[in-house]
């Protein structure tokens, strides 16, 4: 008999892209470790990464935003005129940051949000590296 929890069903990128990341943030940022936090860092991080990757967001931009959230908090980051370089991505992530500011989570929520953004950046980077390995660019490598 296997006592391990069953694995959630695998989701496609299209299914992940349809998830409501804002709701996952509202319920996951201030939750104690458990299913809501797991959903935020699992499907929520994957969903955010899929959407941001499709918008051409570089992982380093999301990682920089994570550092900004950790240093200045969600409220500060939500007020940035351009939290990410591309307008569509900036508007979307600002909505996510504002969802976090509506919570009464304080520094703990700020730190959790920063950690979550780092996870999103990591997933974007893995997606990009996987794509690059499966479809390497043709022609000679670019000189350093």
Judged by helices, strands and strand pairing, the structural class is mainly alpha
Helix content: 55-70%
Put simply, the count of helices is 6
**N- and C-termini, Cα separation:** 56 Å
Characterize the overall form: globular
CA-based gyration radius: 16 Å
**Main sheet makeup:** none
Following the backbone from N to C, one meets helices and strands in this order, namely HHHHHH
Number of strands: 0
Mean pLDDT: 91
| Uncertain runs | none
Oligomer: single chain
The amount of beta strand, in percent, is: under 5%
Overall description:
This protein is mostly helical and 144 residues long. The protein is 67% helix and 0% strand. The chain has 6 helices and no strands.
Please give the structural blueprint:
Layout: H1 13-17, H2 21-28, H3 35-54, H4 59-78, H5 87-101, H6 106-134
What are the salient characteristics of this protein?
single chain; 0% strand
Summary of the model, kept short:
With 144 residues, the protein is mostly helical. It contains six helices and no strands. It has helices at 13-17, 21-28, 35-54, 59-78, 87-101, 106-134.
């Amino acid at each position: 008999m296997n006592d391990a929890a069953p694995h959630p069903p695998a989701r496609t990128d299209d299914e992940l892209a349809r998830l409501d990341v804002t709701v996952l943030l509202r319920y996951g940022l201030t939750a104690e470790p458990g299913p809501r936090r797991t959903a935020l860092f699992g499907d929520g991080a994957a969903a955010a990464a899929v959407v941001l990757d499709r918008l051409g967001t570089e992982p380093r931009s999301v990682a920089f935003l994570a550092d900004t959230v950790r240093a200045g908090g969600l409220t500060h980051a939500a007020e940035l005129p351009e939290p990410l370089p591309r307008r569509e991505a900036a508007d979307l992530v600002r909505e996510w940051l504002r969802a976090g500011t509506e919570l009464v989570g304080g520094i703990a929520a700020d730190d959790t949000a920063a950690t979550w953004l780092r996870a999103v950046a990591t997933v974007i980077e893995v997606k990009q590296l996987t794509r690059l390995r499966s479809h390497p660019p043709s022609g000679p490598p670019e000189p350093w």
